[in-house]
Every structure is written in C-alpha cells, then in structure tokens.
Specification:
The protein is of the alpha/beta class. Helix content is 35%, strand content 14%. The protein folds into two domains: 2-162, no CATH class; 175-394, Rossmann fold (3-Layer(aba) Sandwich), CATH 3.40.50.
C-alpha cells in the first residue's frame, strides 16, 4: 500500500488554493493538487495501490509514505507556494525518513538547456531554503519533457517524466459533454482535412508551409492561434530543422525567405482548443492532421489531448509527434490506420524525414492522383473510429497512468 499524505484545509488540499484565499485576484493556473487527487481516487482499483490520508504529526516508519506537494511555474509565488510554506514538522519527517516529498505537476516551457538548468537549480535552492537535506528524499513528476531534465544532479532529487496526465484528465470530458456523443467518422465533406495548430512550434510551422507548398490548404481547415506573430521565418543555422530542410532541394528552394501569411489560415481565437468549440470542425472534415506538442525529444513519448480528442470524435488521423507514438497508442488498446494506409513514418528516427513522410502521406490522402482509390472512403475507417471512441470512453488509459505511478512512486 502506498500512502500519500497531504494537509486538508477549509480551502481544499494545501495547494495554490491557500494563496488564492489570501489574494483572490490571483488566477489559478494549470492543474492543481485537487485535480490530481480527485483523478487518482477515481482510478480503477486505485484503492489497492494508493491511499490518501491527512498529514499527521506522528507517522511511524511502518506507515511511511509520501507528502504531496504541488509545484507549478517556478517564476510565480503561486507555483512555489506549497514548497515555500512547508511546515518545519513536515520537513523534519522528510529528513527523518518518515516521508518522501512527492512533487507533482511541474509545468514549465523550456526553450534552452540554460533555462532548464536554471529552473532546476532554483527548485533545489528552494529545497535548501526550507531545510531539506536527506539524500533520495524528493521525487519530482515532470509534466513536460526534454532530455536535459533527467540529467540534473542533486543527491536529494530524482526526476521522472510523467506523461499522459493531461490527456487522462480530459477523458472526463464524457461527463461534461452536452448532447449526444459524436458519430464516428462523420463528415459533411466541407474539408478534406483539418489541422488545428494550438500553439506555434517549429514542426507545426513546417507542416503548414509544406501544405501551402503543395497548394493543399484550400482543401482543408488550417487554424492559427490568435495573438501570434503574423509570419514564420525558417532561415538561420540556429533553427534545429534547417539542415534537414536543405536535404529536400525543391522544398528548400521554395521555403527560402518565405513567410506563412496568416490570412491563408483560420484565426482560431482559441475556439479550436475547446472540446465543444471544435465539434463543427470535426463534423466538416474527413481527416485530422495532428501536430503533437513535442517532436524531437529523443526516446520520449508525449501524448496529449490533441490526440485523444480525435479518439473521442472517432476521427481518422495522421499523427506527427514523437517517434513510436502510434506504437504506444496501440499498446494502450487503440487502433491506428496501417490497414488502410502506410504508417512507416512512426518509426523514423530523423525528425525531418518523419515530417516529410507524414506530409507525403497527407498529400496522397487529401489529393489522390487520378485513378487512385480515395482511401478516406474506406469503410474500415469508421470501424476503427468506433473502436477508438469506445476505448477512450472506457478510459483504459487510466490504468496506464496508475502503472506509471507505481513505477515512479511505488518503486
């Protein structure tokens, strides 16, 4: 049995709520500790592995466990509130071995190795400031990933990449959905494809430019986030994709000095980010081109709501993200589309090769050559979509979350 302790107060579990009660003008950011506990308590058979208890002053070694601490944006006092206000009695139990500090939901946007190192250094400085000294006394579950995160060395801390949490929480959308569930793979044919860009990232920029290069954008719905700059430049040796682009001479020639003009795209104004807000887009389109959050993270895999939203709508999709993403979805019980079109792109180690292969596949699907079968009419797509929607609503991936926790927390 894994015991997880936390303070319980009239404002909720000790988390950012405490600061919000003091300064109500401060808006809550991200997933907070309450969400995490609520989710864990709903996991199938979770009572066999985890028990949540109110923290108490006298915890015998036989009941040793984890003290739950929320941590968010390191530059904000709200994100660091749990750690910086830790009671001396809790600190003494961590140093004495009765408790291990369990830090969940570290969510940061890292642009460089330096920013990652600075954040981790600051976190460890906060540990020192509150007086935590015991080695192997802190476990951090990271809500984002880059290879550098796991290379930081502090004898007190072990860092763990904890994927899929956001996506698993969003499985609860079924309880909030208004109206009937979407019918899998239904389209009125307005768009051959849709490509909803939630945030501007290099691999998404490239895909948008490649779609424009082949003049495919008139066939689809391509969103662009509101309040972003109006163009994207791809020149410069500091761009991680630039050398890869130059291997494709025609694309390189076309792309050199070119800018994506947002007037060719739909300005989403964030409506595409909402589950119900994007329902009409799903009804109008035949295929989703999913640009996941991360594309170059070594052997890491990062699956978010962008992929699971397609599962909920039962929509056929092509996914460009981390290598072996489709393979992992299959392990989770989902079906992909190798029985209808090739999915060799999923195993490619070179990011630019992966992206180019995805693009060629998308081109053949949304603009098939004369005489070729229209694969988007294949009845198998509806069967696969129906299976994926049922799998998503059965929340089979929740068990995967529990297994990850057992690996990182219960080990």
């Amino acid at each position: 049995m894994i015991r997880i302790y936390s303070h319980r107060t009239k404002h909720g579990w000790k988390s950012g709520h405490e600061l919000a009660a003091i300064a109500p003008c401060v808006s809550q950011k991200g997933w907070i500790t309450d969400n995490w506990i609520e989710f864990m308590q709903k996991l199938p058979d979770s009572d066999k592995y985890f028990v949540f208890e109110n923290w108490r002053e006298h915890i015998p070694i036989s009941e040793a466990g984890f003290y739950l601490c929320h941590h968010g944006w390191s530059t904000s006092i709200l994100g660091r509130w749990d750690l910086l206000t830790m009671e001396p009695r809790v600190r003494d139990q961590i140093n004495g071995g009765e408790l291990t500090l369990l830090v969940v939901f570290v969510m940061e946007a890292f642009d460089t190795e330096m920013s990652i190192s600075q954040w981790q250094d600051r976190f460890c400085s906060d540990l020192t400031a509150v007086g935590i000294t015991r080695n192997a006394s802190v476990r951090v579950l990271l809500g984002t990933y880059t290879p550098y995160l796991l290379q930081h060395r502090d004898e007190r801390v072990s860092w763990h990449y904890y994927p899929f949490f956001e996506a698993a929480l969003l499985a609860d959308i079924k309880t909030n959905w208004q109206g009937e569930l979407p019918v899998p793979n239904v389209s009125d044919g307005t768009y051959r494809f849709h490509h909803m860009i939630k945030a501007t990232r290099p691999h998404r920029h490239l895909m948008a430019m490649m779609l424009e290069w082949r003049d495919l954008t008139p066939l689809g719905y391509c969103s662009w986030p509101a309040s972003k700059k109006t163009y994207v430049d791809f020149e410069g040796e500091d761009n991680p994709y630039w050398n890869g682009i130059r291997y494709y001479a025609k694309l390189h020639q076309w792309m050199t000095g070119r800018r994506i003009l947002t007037h060719k795209y739909h300005d989403s104004d964030h409506t595409d980010n909402l589950w119900q807000g994007c329902a009409s887009i799903y009804r109008q389109s035949r295929l989703e081109i999913i640009g996941e959050t991360h594309h170059i993270i070594g052997d890491g895999i990062f699956i978010t709501e962008k992929t699971f939203r397609a599962m909920f709508f039962g929509k056929p999709f092509v996914l460009y993200g981390c290598r072996d993403s489709l393979k992992f979805l299959q392990k989770m019980g989902y079906e992909t589309f190798s029985s209808v079109w090739p999915e060799t792109y999923d195993a490619l180690a070179c990011p630019m090769e992966n992206l180019h292969t995805v693009f060629d596949l998308c081109s053949s699907l949304v603009k098939p050559k004369p005489g070729n079968a229209d694969l988007l009419d294949d009845p198998l797509l509806t069967e696969i979509g129906r299976h994926n929607q049922k799998t998503f609503l059965d929340r089979k991936h929740s068990k995967n979350i529990a297994e990850l926790l057992l690996t990182y927390v219960g080990s």
